[in-house]
Design goal:
Phage tail protein beta-alpha-beta fold, 38% strand, 8-stranded mixed beta sheet, mainly beta
Amino acid sequence: MATILLGSIKANAFWHGVLTLIGSYIDQRLFAPSTTGTRLDDLEVQASTYGTPINTVYGTARVAGNIIWGTNFVEHKKKSGGKGGGGTTTYSYTVSCAIGICKGPMLGISRVWADGTEITAKFKDALPTEEELLTAGYVKGFTSGAVTGNKVQYRLYLGNEEQEPDPWIEGIEGEGTSPAYRGMAYIVLKDLELADYGNRIPNFTFEVVTALRDLGAVVEDISAKAKLYETFGSKAVDVSDLIGTRIHGLSIAGDKTFRERIEQLRAVYLFDGLEEEGQIVFQRRAARNALPVPYNNLAAKEGDTSDTELFQVIRKHELELPKTYKITYTSLDKDYEQNSMAANRIVTKSAAVASETMDVIMQDGQAKALAETKLYQTWASRNQVNFSLGMWWAFLGAGKELLVDTGERIRRVQVDKASFGLPGLVQIESTELADTTYNISPRAADAEVLPSPPQTSTAVVLHILDLPRLPNDTSGKYIEYLAAAGQVYFGANLYKTLDGGESYLLVQRMDQESTVGTVSNALGPGPEDFWDWANTITVVLLSGELESRSEAAVLNGYNSAVVGDEIVQFQTAVLVDEATYQLSGLLRGRLGTEDAMSKHKAGERFVLLETEGISTVVETASDWGVARSYKYGSQIADITDASYFVEQHTSTGRIARCWSPCHLKGERDGSGNLTMTWIRRTREYSDWADYVDVPLGETTEKYEVDILRGGIVARTISTSIPSTLYSVAQQVDDFGSVQSAVRVNVYQVNELRGRGIPRGGTL
């Protein structure tokens, strides 16, 4: 590429420039220094991409240009201010280029955007409106823009076969060396100032106006470009039924096949191309006449000698059909930006989504109506109807519509496939249609939902749950469980500090809201080994809802909740007031939490242990027994926000503590020696096998038995098996005599957490 940097310079002008340069140098050396403004070392140039398809435009469309010629950047230096030789030198840059727009001919361009910002005003003196271009009609040659003020200097070529090379390009490249780009519409921009575009050529897009916008004329033009007329004669295509239907615009890349171009229009304007006696007839579906097929014309199936099944109906399953139909298109209402409209079926078990992407330019209301029509069409056409006819119907082909009398009712079908079977049979595969499938009722698009003003942070309720390992937790890590909710919940953040609040570390983000609340009444003691029907609890929920479950479902783990520190399950949940439930049919002390059964009080926490609503935070053995400071609040608020809470929490390492043994028994011999036995439980989960004890789950098996005298421990007995002997001699040492009843606490012990939960009893 070339550029003009200097005009024709005479010798005296040259020497004058040299003398001026020398004088400037002396001034700078002897007087004040100059200031140099921003100068580009590496000028950015928008790339010219080879092989980019040239768009074909029908009607009016917005298309992106591609640079087909350009100069180097020209640097302009300007010095201002400064007495005695000082001042500031600033630099600006311009470039000249030619941008290919689309295949011609076109009527003109009516709007221009640079980097997405409309700059039509800079072309104001010469750019007509779309209406003015349509009124003026075909224009030969080029139009040129004004060269005044801040207006862009340009010359526009409409893509005619008569256009000549641009004289300004020829002046730079040389006469006879510049192409005329005949058949392509393009624009030449001269000395385009780049300061507003980051000193680079911006991405230009243009609203192109053409006169071809009748649907029939457009389909005919595409057919002609596909050489159908050259191949099959002047009557190869019949578009008469499409004439009069106006399209706003369609921009198609040059790499699309002619079939794909017609399919774009067919998908929006609902017409088909049918082959009839060697001619392709394009017809709107709503206008198509259906041929009646009498019942007595139905023939038996191939190989079937009975007349019991003259037709077959195959119905698609509901799950094969879409719940949502989505149309992606170019929106006329949004300055040709890509937009989407969707239609939804309210009552269906399907979750499938069908979608189409179209180059056709539509108004939003038109696209919404089309999506609804497409969805209805898909459901209405769920039946495939297969039957056979006699040879009289051999003329039938794909696309024909029939009114088939099946004996029970008249079915409107469209032929998908017609083939010859046994001699005398024409086998038909068809899709059932609804009469109103193709009638699109115009409608306004739903009003856009404007962005809601940002909501203020709301208080978060967060519970750190020091619990045994839950059955669905297979991580094997030492963790505590988390539950969070709020009146308006935007997610919660939990931070932890190890330096007294100097800094906080984010330890968990809780996106899913938990089902949490408070218990109005204090839950009384109850049985561990069978259903508790005596007690009920009243729960007021902050978030979520509760439901009743069958006995079998509860035994399989459903409806588990933390009440205070006890894990409880419930069968029945009755809504007694707004967000208030009465729970009954309880299973108590679940997962080894029977030690918390006697510690309930009114107003304590309630957390439903649902997988989706429970998060975790990983801890180490060094965290156990140490008070840690946490800070939590809404995800939409900063940690410094006043809505954040600070909470001290000390983990007991409950997840690593052994559960209490069960079935504690004592037997005395004739001398008074007391033998104590129990059955251990495991804190880790495994499959339940017959005739085999549960896995130990610990490194070693170890127990400690405290003999209690009043409120103090009189003796501790250690054992590695689930039994021990409390001898007569030991009883005398501890109490002074043989005891008829002894209070004991039995602990299973592990190396991680030491003593587990005690099992107490009087033996």
